[in-house]
């Protein structure tokens, strides 16, 4: 009895159980595992050469920054020089709607609009004094109204002769305008560029051109020239030298009405700095004048070949 008790006590103190009562572990205990998020997977790491990402980034860059990025390497050149990017940037910076079609790549159109070029850089450079970029506007229709007056013209009849319209209303119509985006500049040139040999002063010119003009070969080689549309004299004191170009289709639009509200933008009567106003479908300029004896006003147009579309327009004014 004592031996059995001793044996039982020894087994209990050793912490051992009989073989039949021991727990058998079939597998080891492990911690709970959660599914791995897909965005942490190795295959989804960020790629610096994701074209969609750089297309979006490019929309926030100016033209100079885009060119710098395109010169980084061949991949960036291919991605950044995509015409869709340059179309977006061009319309954004010019603040005009998209034309139905264009004859040149948008990268070239952007360059011709923002590289500092103007019409007197191509011809008559010796006559040029200074210039100012006004902005861009848009022609929907093929008819333009050119005027030297900034008040609303009221009732106008296209069947009136050019001379009568200039004399009575100080304006004229111009047909067959090339639709699309137009760029407007204010030019200051020497008067000998005009027909009055008695004047040795300066001449102000509102100069508007289609955005594609400078890229056309016939313009570059001098085949297209400006033609005189009409001219007349204002033989009395003029308060200012003004000029405006309107798309006739949008003459009564609310955006165009801002141009006719000229007192809000031409400056005070003793402010001699040129002022300009741009709208979606119109452009206007005005320079207040000191005492004078009147103005000689000249209207010019450039066509894309004989009987072609009008691709450039000018309204020039000089003191008598």
UniProtKB/TrEMBL annotation:
Instruction: Give the record's GO biological process terms.
Output: reproductive system development
Please give an example of a GO cellular component term from this record.
Answer: nucleus
Xref: SUPFAM superfamilies? F-box domain
Region annotation (Disordered) ranges: 1-20
Residue ranges that the Swiss-Prot or TrEMBL entry lists as coiled coil:
none
Alphabetical list of Gene3D superfamilies matching this protein: 1.20.1280.50
Identify the InterPro entries for this entry: F-box-like_dom_sf (IPR036047)
Superkingdom, natural source = Eukaryota
Q: What is this protein called?
A: Probable F-box protein At3g61730
According to its UniProt entry, this protein's organism is: Cicer arietinum (Chickpea)
């Amino acid at each position: 009895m004592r031996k059995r008790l001793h044996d039982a006590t020894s087994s209990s103190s050793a912490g051992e159980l009989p073989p039949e009562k021991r727990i058998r572990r079939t597998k080891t205990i492990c911690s709970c595992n959660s599914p791995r998020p897909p965005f942490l997977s190795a295959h989804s790491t960020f790629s610096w050469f994701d074209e969609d990402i750089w297309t979006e980034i490019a929309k926030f860059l100016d033209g100079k920054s885009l060119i710098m990025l395109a010169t980084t390497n061949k991949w960036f050149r291919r991605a950044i020089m995509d015409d869709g990017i340059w179309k977006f940037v061009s319309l954004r910076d010019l603040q005009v709607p998209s034309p139905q079609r264009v004859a040149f790549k948008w990268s070239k159109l952007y360059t011709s609009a923002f590289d500092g070029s103007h019409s007197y850089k191509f011809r008559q450079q010796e006559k040029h004094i200074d210039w100012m970029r006004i902005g861009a506007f848009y022609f929907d229709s093929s008819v333009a109204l050119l005027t030297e007056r900034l008040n609303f013209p009221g009732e106008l009849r296209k069947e009136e002769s050019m001379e009568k319209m200039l004399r009575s209303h100080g304006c004229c119509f111009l047909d067959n305008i090339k639709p699309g985006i137009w760029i407007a500049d204010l030019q200051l040139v020497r008067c000998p560029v005009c027909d009055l040999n008695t004047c040795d002063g300066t001449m102000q010119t509102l100069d508007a051109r289609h955005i594609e003009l400078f890229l056309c070969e016939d313009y570059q080689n001098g085949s297209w020239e400006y033609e005189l549309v009409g001219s007349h004299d204002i033989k009395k004191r003029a308060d200012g030298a003004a000029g405006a170009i309107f798309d006739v289709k949008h003459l009564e639009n609310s955006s165009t009405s801002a141009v006719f509200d000229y007192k809000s933008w031409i400056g005070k009567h003793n402010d001699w700095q040129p002022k300009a106003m741009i709208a979606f479908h119109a452009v206007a300029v005005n320079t207040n004048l000191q005492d004078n004896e009147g103005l000689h006003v000249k209207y010019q147009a450039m066509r894309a070949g004989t009987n072609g579309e009008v691709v450039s327009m000018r309204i020039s004014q000089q003191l008598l």
